[in-house]
Sequence to fold (708 residues):
Amino acid sequence: MAAASLFSRQFKTDSKRVAADLRHRGLIRTALTKYEAARDLNKAAFQDWQGARQAAAERKWEAINHLDRHLESFAAKLEARGTKVHWASTAAQARQIFLDILREKGARSIIKSKAMTAEEIHLNDALEKAGYSVVESDLGEYIVQLRNEAPYHIVFPAMHLTRGEISALFAEKLGTPPTDNPEDLTMIARRVLRDKYITADVGITGANFAVAETGMVSITENEGNARLTAALPRTMITLLGIEKIVPKLSDLALFLPMLATAGAGQAITGYNSMYGGPRQPGETDGPEEYHVVLIDNGRTHLLADPEQRDALHCIRCGACLNVCPIYRNVGGHSYGTTYSGPIGSVITPHLRGLQDWKHLSQASSLCGACTDACPVKIDLHHHLLQNRRNAMSAKPTWWERLAFRGFAFIANRALFLNRLMPFARFAQKWFHWIVKGGPLDPARVWTETRELPPIAPATFTDLWRARQRARRHTPEAAR
Amino acid sequence: MNTEKENILRRVREALTVPAPHPGHHHHAAANGADEPISHWLPQVGAGFDAQADLFARNSVQLKSTFHLLENEAAASAKLAEIARAGAWKRVASHGDGARGPATRAMVSSLGLPALWTDAGYDVREMEQCDAGISECEALVAQTGSVLVTGRSSGGRALSVLPPHHVVLARRDQLIADLPAAFALLEQRYAAGYPSFISFITGPSRTGDIERILVLGAHGPKALTILCW
Fold:
């Protein structure tokens, strides 16, 4: 058997553990049931949600399929108003750009609002190793940062934790008295972080959209932490993937409510802010310097696959995670990737290597719930299937090929198949239980935790013959 | 530095030499959504001031912001004073460089409280000590209950997010129907040079990060009040 990748083995171990964790199931159920109810209410408020999906998909298609033109416009408009635009092909280059800016500014403390791209390039690690202190300001991100953990979900980073665990965490790390009131816990974080905004030299943000027409970065949030990050420090840096482009400013009238509805079940998110540069002449505040870091990090690889190019339409709403039966069972951390759930399973093989991450495309029932939920109509479940095909044709597994050839040989020979059936029934009944679920069981993956359905007592051919015989003997009863 | 720009754009262009199928068209002969106005898809908004003010008020209840529709400027001024008393404000922040300029300055000054004016720059720590930030806005969006602010018209980036209570002063003719109308207004007003900061503020600052339970005032204002006359 070909050696499964380390990532694949890790995924199997972790998902097996989490799927059996009842406490985890309870938390996910509570969080997602509330989400579903709110999402359905807001979807229904749209005059035509399906029409909106189509319109959004077409706008993203335009953006991605003329990406070169839009990127040039985006950068040129920003630069014209005093923003420094940086380009990074790899994660290492992007990290270096940050380190160079911070060194040049003589920065000491850094406040950061939520950015999945920063998780993608492991920015915090790199900055901390270089001696900078970085504080996450989004409440959920702050909590997982205190726990030294990766975010659990693209939109709800601390969805896997109870208030009790968060209270214990704050007590341990911040020395605050324990409480089971979410409001008190939020106010603790508010107090601690207020001071950080005011003293930070540099603010780092991510972005939800990049407007090509006007050269603006659009940031969506509920807490106001990104707004403070973009208002108070003297230097602001935004990190974003090159696929964030939307062609026109007015396109946001469509994308902002769709992101909120699909992502969090809100009609619109609390703050949707657009930034087009540092403080301009005649403005009263804002950073003196604004840097925008555009990162490729494998995205052009995905762009080069026209079949799956629409995966770059993704607006990172997380809707596909929320509806995915696999995600809901194995949880966000089991994936071992920055982007989890169906979209993560589709794009990670393109960003980080097909053979190492092909197992994620197998972890799907292909039910298509993700494709239905996607506000920009990414054909997610077909892409999972395409990843499976691509992985197999790039690197066929000898034993699977052998097994399928054998199956084809037998299945194409009805007589042979029928002769084998009694043997299979006999073997299943009298011998399978001896090895069932054990290391010698060829069907172990299934039988470890489930019962194999019993092979039918008679084949279709047997039944047909019996029926024909009965008909011959009692012709009037057969009609 | 610029070589990476060229490398990325070269890879993009190479990738795009092979076209990708147009979205959705293999499933149904979908209407061409690119040409239709966006308002056709979004939640419906009635015509006329009364319907839109009513929608804005209903959205405000949902969002836990407070919306006061008032008779005239004197009534707005009295309401502001009432809110200041109820909140036991000691100090406020505001700006006098908006479209209403002196009128806003006069209304805030009539509170008789020490005021921090952001017009010519300010000290962040001082603003942090203020009990309220009072600002003008670009528009009120009925469809979503949002307040549209910009760095140029509404006292900068921090005034509407740093103090614990944000009070918005708006005229009746600033109420507009929906998001597409808001972007059309921005384009019409600023196409020659956009402010560096534009924001749709929808309700007070909020979080659901702990067990998806709603808490107001996560980092920004715990309260948002809109006075419209």
Remarks:
- Chain A has three domains: 1-45+321-333+340-395, 53-297, 398-473.
